[in-house]
Amino acid sequence: MFSNVKGFFAKKTKGVGIELTPERVNVARLKKKGQGFQLTTLASAEVPEGVYQEGQIIDSATMAEIIQSVLSESKLKIKHAATAIPGGRDTVTRIIPVPAELDDRELREMVLNQEAGLYLPFPREEADVDYQKLGFFVDEDGIEKVQVLLVATRKDVTDSYLTTFQQAGLDVDVLEISSFSLIRTIREQLRQFTPQEAAAIVDIEFESTEISIIVDGVPQFSRTVPIGTFQIQSALSRAMNLPPSRNTELLQGMTVPIAPMDSMGAAPKAMGTNPGTAAMLRVLGELADELRRSIDFYLNQGDNLEVAQLLLAGPGGSIGQLDEFFSQRLSLPASQIDPIAALSLEVDQDIPLMQRPGLGVVLGLGLREAW
Questions:
Q1: What's the rounded Cα separation, in Å, for the pair 348 and 328?
Q2: Which tops the pLDDT comparison, 266 or 230?
Q3: Are 86 and 208 a contacting pair, CB within 8 Å?
């Protein structure tokens, strides 16, 4: 698919996982130990404003320097890395049906050169596309078909990642969509659901939240909404007359107040709370509404569909009692993920519980490069 990268579904080699976000570069190195894995390195560095925005690297030279500094400070002398592009307007994941009788060459031709263009919001020639065969099924006309997971991103975004890592002295072995990394991290947790049950992963990042509805470990629907920890933090700061800040660590110490529902089942009002908390609740309420719209859209796609649970991930997933808040607003069980526990990782350093939901993507990338 790419001349110098092994594609979205490439096999793993040995290096590190590196996650790029608007506020931080995260690095994780894992090694196999017995039947499990050990986390040997977990490091992070701040990213200044204007370097990375809306899933795109704006200043590749500065980002490359940050990557190099994290590796140097961690004493990591490696040449290979796995990284991920966040879901959003520049990425597409779709499940498409194609005839089952196609051989591999015919399937590749149909998916990459015929079908892909039908599902992309940007011209086919401007996209990098990959695919993976899933399971066979018989459609309503009795015709056997195979489901194919189509993944695409804009070439200019792909190129900016490859250029940045090249400037940092690294070869990119794996470039995937961040939701795939997160799914890999919690795949054992996802196996508790039946094929008829979906899990909704709510990955609350800095600038946005990616909502992915997963069945049998495969994303059936994904949507990105422009509400993240920065928007929550900004609303809180304005209400409290505090100067604006990109540092959202304050949110990890916050707890969402939970009030009982009224007799009509309506959402609780932010009564008796300070202006900052009330502002935070308004933004979280907007996010809950977007979640409801996404879930309703998925459920309207067919019969016998069920969303069994919300799984909260990302830096925003650690906000205290956020699981209870969403559970109350959406009438669905909700829980905050703990990637360390989900992978049964052996760790040498103490990683506070409030930081763990934000490690799902980088640990999933680290698994692709595990030693």
A1: 37
A2: 230
A3: yes
